[in-house]
Write the structure tokens for this entry.
Amino acid sequence: MTGHARFEYAQEALQYGCFDYVLKPVDHDVLKEIVKRAIEEIERRQERQAFEEMLEKYRRHWKNQLPILVEKFWQEVLAGRGPAGQDRLDREFAMYDIPLSAGDRVLPVLLSIEQWDVELDARDESIMEYAVRKAAAEIILGDRKGAVLQDRNDVNLVLVYLPDGALADRDALKTACLQYVRASNDYFHCRVSCYVGDTVRIGEIAGSVERLSQLERANISNPQTVVDGLESGEALGGSAAGPSLPSFMEWGILLDNGSIDELVLAVNETLRRFQEESVSRETLELFYFGFVHMLFQAAHRKGVSIYDALAVQEMNDGQFARTPLHMQAWAVKMVQKAGQAFQDRHRDASAVIAKIQSFIQDNIHKELGRDDIAGAVYRNPAYLSRMFRKETGLSLTDYIAQAKIERAKRLLIDTNDKVSHIAEGIGYTHFSYFAKLFKKMTGMTPQDYRKKHQTLH
């Protein structure tokens, strides 16, 4: 508000951000209206600023969550539930900041974790698998655009992006994979192999990964290696000599879940198709070995020997099936017998687990090992360990420690024995290790636990 009516004054005032320019004398109502509009403008600016701050907060949150969202996106694609249509695919690529378009290609590399050279419980194994994937991002991807993820079947993958018609340098990629195999062994005590696929379109990734999985299953004598799928012939599918083999991985899942009728239907459909297409003897042999391998893998996951479920001669009979119909009769018989045996063995396994738990409780005062327990129930130690973890969700080591600490807690409350004597009484000769384990599992020292709980009794 001023008494100067010169244009230069008004111009300079507006340049400095003046809200309005009013000459004296001013009407009181006009002044109130100007002040009201000024307040409203201030409030709008404050609201806009608050909104921008909130938006920036969620932008940061989105950016932090982006790797997880990208992994979920690819998991959906690999499960066959990716976005339909090029436009929608392009939108999702843009949304997740993936530098691809619908017509671009991807090169998958399957990371096969074959063995850990150190004993890990389930939680530590998951943590170490995450570390191995991070190492793959650094060594295999390096400066390449791509993603490292674990699909819904726990298969670890590297996806190398090839935007705008880019070509993959396979030799350089295989060299990086070999470095990764060595580094995993040196730094993570982990034996891995890499299976390098072909460049495929987005909709073909799931099929390419399945073919790499077939290569992985077929590789039983070449650990810690880099396998080029393009040099591995038929196993990567696509041979023009005959029809494609079924997904034995999916069949194995049906057998795991006890979906025997559904699996029998799939077997019948596949082999009837083979009959109609007059497949070669070689195709039948490939089916046989893939099918038998599927049975072995399913038995392994169940923690049983396949030879306890099926007679050796019965399994060998499939090799001599001369027609798809003969193979069909044999395969259906194997599925039904294996499915029944797995159900029966599950009941037997529950009885063995009960014996193991009883043995541990009866010998809680000893320093128990896997071999001691296996000997007590007349089982192979490695097989027993897998079966126990599968049935209880705990490793034998974790269960023994849990049982010992539970016994120690009861003794701390019900007796006045020295803590060191209690530790010795449950098989821990090193008191410091016992005290550390007790605090890890209960959140307090043995002395504090006794002090807290004895006062309540």
